[in-house]
Design goal:
CATH topology of the largest domain: Rossmann fold
CATH superfamily of the largest domain: P-loop containing nucleotide triphosphate hydrolases
Number of helices: 25
Pfam family, one: DEAD
Cofactor: Zn(2+)
Subunit structure: Component of the replication restart primosome.
Family: Belongs to the helicase family. PriA subfamily.
Strand content: 15-25%
Distance between the termini: 37 Å
GO molecular function: 3'-5' DNA helicase activity; ATP binding; ATP hydrolysis activity; DNA binding; zinc ion binding
Radius of gyration: 30 Å
Shape: globular
Oligomer: single chain
CATH architecture of the largest domain: 3-Layer(aba) Sandwich
Number of domains: 6
Structural class: alpha/beta
Helix content: 25-40%
Largest sheet: 7 strands, parallel
């Protein structure tokens, strides 16, 4: 296929477009272009097409040419949605690389990359934006019909609207209504979009005359002094600001909402409600108000020097060493050179926390992008990046898909984090690795930062594939926290345990509270109790859909499955033997919080886990409360380990380190060290040495000793010997194939057939099929096949091509009916 620019054509020439459909199909599909649209087809534009008998989809033009498909008659595309491409040529190349590397289809990559409002389909849900007042007299006939129908029926699909209007080309109409804020578009309408509105105030023009203003003030001062104060504050603000919001005036004047309302009613001030961007409304120039230490300056120069030789540099900096300040200096250099920067963070939690710090430096130059944004907001960011309005994007893994123009630097903070890996659905990409490819594609630089680098990145640095820089001391000379390991076994013998807390941890918590300091407690399991068991017959409630026991949540009073979301009432009588002797085994964050509130009744305790941070602003509210010292003790899962920086947190308690260490996975020791070191790093930042208490049944465990001594290198060399012996990364590459089916017997035959076919090509590189730790999820039984390959690119690419062929051949057989095959390249 040729690109549009390469084709010389007349109005009556027949053109064909190859499009990417948002479906898991292995080939792009070709459509015929109506003559009237010949001048409008360009690569990267969205088009409306019919696929199958009646389904409509938004597709992306991947190529334009004049060659008709040979095997089928091309249908006409129905319409073009865009005046200019919404996807760039570079993005399409990136999508193709992701599809090839992670063994998936371009349509699956498109689904992950585009906000759903940019990929309308027959099933896409449409609803009225209830916060937007529609003047129906301004609507076109078809817009009016759709609005009327949505007032009667709250929600319609695109297919419903096709039937309502009696035409297939409804998507341009819906696009126009979406842009006017009349409707919301979402694949999941559960997240309602509300445009951010602010009331802005202006002075009634008659009071621009100084004489009228002088007459007004004495009257207000006598009858309504608060209103006089508000008006005076308005005049003061107007000297330095073009726009003044109602909230700003209330804050500046100290007057209440009623006083402002009275000024509006008296027509002294004129109020106008406007939709404003949620993304950033602060256009201040970034400030330059911090100094790097001599060590930081040296490391910064080292990074810059390494970038002259290497495209990727690994920065190994201990916790609280000031890595973020180095990032800021590098970002400033990129902005000054006119290039864009992508700053990746593994967690939305970190994004919301660190954005406040970065905004003071970059103001309106910075945009934020992650999955907690609803669809309209994601489209807004997409368009701003496409229009080059943002110089810096701060985001979670999905921000690698944005339409950058000139990407000069990608920073991957906490590069070791597994949160960068997408698990479901496909593409199962790792944003860190994708960022490295992206940087290469834009001829930009990539900086990987971590206090505990992944072994793969550290190996690449040691073998000189990456550059390497090290920041070995905490900023400001603050000492690393003192770490004390406490044996739970010993304390149980001495009977000094209080619930799940050793006497050492309890004493340190009480001391911190007495000194008006804060505490973070880490327990890597949410819920109240992970297991309910009958003392008589040992019955344990299991999920009806998955092969896991249910976790009790006290807040809901129900048993929850953390894999599929199934819930049921907690029984008071054993359904197996009728006994009333049911007990809870183990404990999660909810139980830690509950028992602490009884042991320390005066303490203000909060919990930060998936259950308490589901709503949009709940996470930020918890962090704000911790910052403002409204929380004394924060109990949390791994969320609390990542990037939080609070000056008064002096004690960190790890309630049960064994839950991390005793996991049957070759990553277990690496992950345990990373988690324990990261959690420990939250203590004693900004000028105070902190204390970390690690509670464990195995105080002599090698990894705990390495954490105490902060000896990453000892961990690395010890683990690498084992990995080399057993052919694990980074010496070998791994591809996992999960085969799923609702029948266990059929699954057995399917997995064995696939493994046999793969062994014909790869011999003993194929391991399995085996049942994974959890062998049934959402009513699908699972068997896993692992393949290990040498590191060289040629052999892995050849292997992927063979795996694709084997899977395709399997899917042509009758045996494959009902099977789901999921490929996971470089699993974590």
């Amino acid at each position: 296929m040729l690109e549009f620019a390469d084709i010389q054509h007349t109005d009556r020439e027949t053109l064909f477009v190859e499009v990417i459909l948002p479906l898991a199909i292995s080939k792009n599909y070709t459509y015929r272009v109506p003559f009237s649209l010949n001048d409008s087809v360009f690569i990267g534009k969205r088009v409306v097409v019919q696929f199958g008998k009646s389904k409509l989809y938004t597709a992306i033009i991947a190529a334009v040419g004049n060659q008709a498909p040979e095997k089928y008659e091309a249908k006409y595309l129905l319409d073009i949605l865009d005046d200019r491409p919404v996807v760039t040529g570079r993005q399409l190349r990136f999508w193709q690389w992701l599809a090839d590397y992670y063994l998936c289809n371009m349509g699956e990559v498109m689904n992950a990359a585009l906000p759903s409002a940019l990929k309308l389909a027959s099933e896409t849900k449409i609803e009225l934006n209830k916060d937007f007042q529609v003047d129906k007299s301004t609507l076109h006939d078809k817009e009016f019909l759709i609005t009327e129908a949505l007032e009667i029926q709250n929600e319609l699909t695109v297919g419903d609207i096709v039937k309502l209007l009696g035409q297939k080309t409804v998507m341009p109409i819906l696009k126009s209504m979406f842009e006017k804020n009349i409707i919301n578009i979402s694949e999941e309408v559960s997240e309602r979009y509300k445009p951010r509105k602010r009331t802005f105030l202006t002075l009634n023009p008659i009071y621009n005359d100084p004489d009228n203003l002088r007459e007004l003030f004495p009257i207000l001062e006598k009858r309504a002094p608060k209103q006089a104060d508000a008006l005076l504050a308005y005049i003061k603000l107007a000297r330095t600001q073009k726009t003044i919001s109602k909230n700003e005036l209330i804050e500046e004047s100290g007057a209440g909402d009623a006083s402002i309302r009275s000024l509006i009613e008296k027509e002294i001030l004129v109020a106008e409600e406007k939709n404003v961007s949620r993304l950033y409304f602060d256009e201040d120039e970034f400030s330059d108000n911090f100094q790097l230490s001599d060590t930081q300056e040296q490391v910064l120069n080292d990074i810059k020097q390494q970038f002259s030789e290497k495209d990727v540099v690994l920065l190994h900096g201990v916790t609280s060493s000031g890595k973020t300040q180095l990032y800021i200096r590098l970002i400033e250099d990129m902005i000054n050179s006119g290039k864009q920067v992508l700053y990746l963070l593994p967690e939305i939690a970190l994004t919301t926390h660190i954005i406040e710090r970065l905004r003071q430096y970059f103001g309106g130059n910075i945009g934020v992008y992650h999955s907690r944004f609803n669809d309209n907001e994601r489209v807004e960011v997409w368009q701003k990046v496409l229009n080059h309005e943002y110089k810096v994007i701060l985001g979670a893994r999905s921000s690698v898909f944005l339409p950058f123009a000139d990407l000069g630097l990608i920073i991957v903070d906490e590069e070791h984090e597994t949160s960068y890996k997408q698990f479901d659905p496909a593409p199962r990409y790792n944003a860190r690795d994708a960022a490295i490819y992206l940087g290469n594609m834009y001829q930009g630089k990539v900086l990987l930062g971590s206090a505990t680098p992944s072994f793969e990145s550290y190996y690449n640095a040691r073998t000189h594939k990456y550059g390497f820089a090290e920041l070995a001391e905490r900023f400001g000379g603050v000492e690393l926290p003192k770490t004390e390991v406490v044996s739970i076994t010993e304390e149980l013998k001495k009977k000094t345990m209080q619930s799940h807390f050793t006497s050492v941890l309890m004493d340190d918590i009480k001391t911190a509270l007495a000194n008006k300091e804060q505490v973070i407690l880490f327990q890597n399991r949410r819920g109240y109790a992970p297991l309910m068991m009958c003392k008589v017959c040992a019955y344990t409630p299991k999920c009806v859909n998955c092969d896991v026991s249910l976790t009790f949540h006290k807040s809901s009073g129900k048993l929850h499955c953390h894999y599929c979301g199934y819930k049921e009432e907690a029984p008071s009588i054993c359904p197996a033997c009728g006994s009333t002797h049911l007990e809870y085994k183990g404990f999660g964050t909810e139980k830690v919080e509950d028992e602490l509130s009884m042991l320390l009744p005066g303490a203000r305790i909060a919990r930060m886990d998936l259950d308490t941070t589901r709503s949009r602003n709940s996470l930020q509210n918890i962090l704000n409360d911790l910052e403002e010292k409204k929380i004394d003790i924060l109990v949390g899962t791994q969320m609390v380990a990542k990037g939080l920086d609070f000056s008064d947190v002096t004690v960190i308690g790890i309630i049960n380190a064994d839950s991390l260490l005793k996991y049957p996975d070759y990553h277990a020791n690496e992950r345990s060290f990373q988690m324990l070191a990261q959690v420990s790093g939250r203590a004693g930042r900004r000028g105070k040495q902190g204390k970390v208490v690690i509670q464990t049944y195995d105080p002599n465990h090698r990894v705990i000793r390495q954490v105490i001594e902060n000896d990453y290198k000892d961990l690395y060399f010890t683990e690498m010997e084992e990995r080399k012996s057993f052919k694990y990364p980074p010496f070998y590459r791994i591809i996992n194939l999960d085969v799923k089916h609702k029948s266990q017997d059929i699954l057995y035959n399917q997995a064995e057939y696939l493994a046999t076919e793969l062994r014909k090509n790869f011999g003993d590189r194929v391991i399995g099929p085996e049942y994974p730790l959890i062998s049934r999820i959402r009513n699908y039984y699972i068997k896993s096949i692992m393949l290990k390959f040498e590191r060289d690119v040629e052999s892995i690419n050849r292997a992927k091509a063979i795996i694709k062929d084997v899977i395709t051949q399997f899917q042509t057989t009758k045996l494959s009916k009902g099977a789901i095959i999921q490929a996971d390249v470089d699993p974590v």
